[in-house]
Design goal:
This protein has 511 residues and is of the alpha/beta class. It has 16 helices and 21 strands. It has 2 domains: 132 residues, Roll (Urease, subunit C, domain 1); 302 residues, TIM Barrel (Alpha-Beta Barrel). This is Amidohydrolase.
């Protein structure tokens, strides 16, 4: 008998048919390697299978291929054609927790919703599979064709396999990063298995020979806080090409020098001097020496604008390292999962911060410090570079055919002239009409090709969400709080309440 995971995989075979596609008409946001910038083609055409074969600056420029065997012609006149978005930091397994943390900050996220909280004692492999599948489909629907999934739910081999299968079943392009670290085995008293990494690394070594999975779409990576020599060696010996880690720093207990410490793991040969990609999430307290390391060895950080505002770890200097930075979502159970929103938030928060520096000098800003094109590059090309895949996040000949087609018929887009500004500042997920991943149509006429409702995936996720909420409500969270604080050597003196705003006239604050 087939397992649930095998059945789901078979259901997805229906959306993998490969065709030669000719998009004819419309405005194409292409990328030029020679100018290192976007180039806009109006009334163009593009031919692709899994790879972009040709782009023309005229609607009929590729019509010589119209009668080629297997060619499907799509009229994209009046539409905007964009590369797929790239999210370089997300914990997709948390989908079933949606709306549980609207006001949570980083202090209590760890013991409430993180991998060190009660989740390992509540969620089954089936829960992890449906959460990962539906979370990745949510991202795909939002035009996120490539993701880096920091999968810190590898509590058992079954949980790990379920998470991996979830991204495979989604049809998206994913670097699925197997977390190596301690596993909670009891909440009260708070008990952690600190030897879990032995079997986790063994499992990685077993999985690695089969990576990439799903015809090259899903690639195995490693996540760790922090990476160790053994993890680096396992990656090198198993041909794993990406390692990711959190780097928050400041007053938080992981320290201010994560990037430096990783670079020093292999004495005599800087760890970051590698063809392997290293992606550091947040780098909220980045210092100049670590910025120099990133530039010297061409490694990247993932800025997660909304998350860093929501949780309170901030990004005071991240605007200074955008040449080595990409964008991520982080914990999508607390806010939306689309990169359009992250581009917009990051653009405007960066502008505000730099405008404020000028205003503080009693001067009037005379130009904008960041453009919409720069924000767009952060959500597309820079993500590909972070993964050491310059063929992702761009429309150019030879790039992978991860393509978005935006309808411009919505009331909020009527009258547009600048396609980049239209996407970054005016569009929303509903405007994405068609999506191709590796040349395969995964969203058509505004709906995912996969019938996630008809297949019962929504009901499975709802049941998992109810299960988690009910179990969470019965959990002694204070035991997790005390245990995690002790791990980080934190005391009450390390915390302070910020100023709480008042939005209500008269009594009360509206909080």
């Amino acid at each position: 008998m087939l397992s649930r995971f095998q059945v789901v995989s078979l259901l997805f075979l229906g959306c993998t048919a490969q065709s030669l596609m000719l998009l004819r008409g419309g405005t194409f946001i292409t990328y030029s390697e020679s100018t290192s910038n976007l180039e806009i083609i109006t009334d163009g055409a593009m031919l692709f299978n899994d790879t972009i074969i040709a782009i023309s600056n005229s609607t009929d420029g590729l019509d010589s291929h119209a009668n080629d065997e297997g060619v499907q012609i799509v009229n994209t006149t009046g539409k905007i054609i964009s590369p797929g978005f790239i999210d370089t930091h997300r914990h997709t397994w948390q989908t079933a927790m949606r709306t549980l943390g609207p006001n949570v900050q980083l202090e209590n996220y760890f013991w409430m919703f993180g991998s060190g909280g009660p989740a390992p004692l509540i969620l089954s492999p089936d829960d992890i599979h449906i959460a990962t599948l539906m979370g990745t489909l949510e991202a795909l629907n939002a035009g996120v064709t490539t993701s880096l999934d920091f999968a810190h739910m590898t509590w058992t081999r079954a949980h790990a396999q379920a998470g991996l299968q979830g991204v495979i079943d989604s049809g998206a392009r994913v670097w699925w990063c197997y977390n190596v670290g301690p596993v909670v085995i009891s909440g009260d008293p708070y008990t952690v298995n600190r030897s879990a990494s032995v079997d986790q690394l063994a499992h990685i070594r077993e999985l690695a020979p089969n990576s990439p999975f799903n015809n090259g779409l899903v690639t195995l990576g490693i996540a760790a806080d922090p990476p160790t020599v053994e993890i680096i060696e396992t990656a090198q010996n198993s041909s794993v090409n990406l390692i990711t880690a959190h780097d928050v720093g400041g007053p938080f207990p992981d320290g201010d020098n994560v990037i430096t410490e990783v670079n020093n793991l292999t004495p005599g040969n800087p760890t970051l001097n590698s063809s392997m990609a290293f992606v550091f999430a947040h780098a909220s307290s980045l210092n100049p020496s670590e910025a120099r390391l990133l530039r010297k060895f061409n490694q990247f950080v993932s800025i997660t604008p909304e998350s860093e505002m929501h949780y309170g770890h901030g990004h005071p200097s991240s605007y200074l390292i955008q040449d080595q930075a990409s964008l991520g979502v982080d914990t999508h159970f607390t806010f939306s999962l689309d990169i359009i929103g992250q581009m917009r938030i990051w653009l405007q928060s960066t502008r505000l911060g730099l405008y404020q520096e000028t205003l503080n000098k009693f001067k009037i800003p005379s130009n904008t410090p960041m453009s919409v094109r720069q924000a767009f590059l952060m959500g597309t090309r820079n993500g590909g570079l972070a993964l050491k895949r310059p063929d992702l996040g761009v429309l150019r000949e030879g790039a992978k055919a991860d393509v978005l087609v935006f309808s411009t018929d919505a009331i909020g887009l009527i009258g547009w002239s600048d396609p980049v500004a239209a996407i970054v500042l005016h569009s929303n997920v509903a405007d994405i009409e068609d999506i191709y991943v590796d040349g395969k149509l995964v969203k058509s006429a505004g709906k995912l090709v996969v019938d996630w409702e008809g297949q019962g995936f929504a009901d499975q996720l709802r049941a998992s969400a109810v299960k988690f909420r009910e179990a969470f409500a019965k959990t002694n969270i204070s035991a997790f709080e005390e245990g995690i604080k002790l791990q980080g050597s934190l005391t009450d003196a390390d915390f302070q309440d910020p100023f709480e705003v008042d939005v209500t006239r008269g009594d009360g604050t509206g909080f």
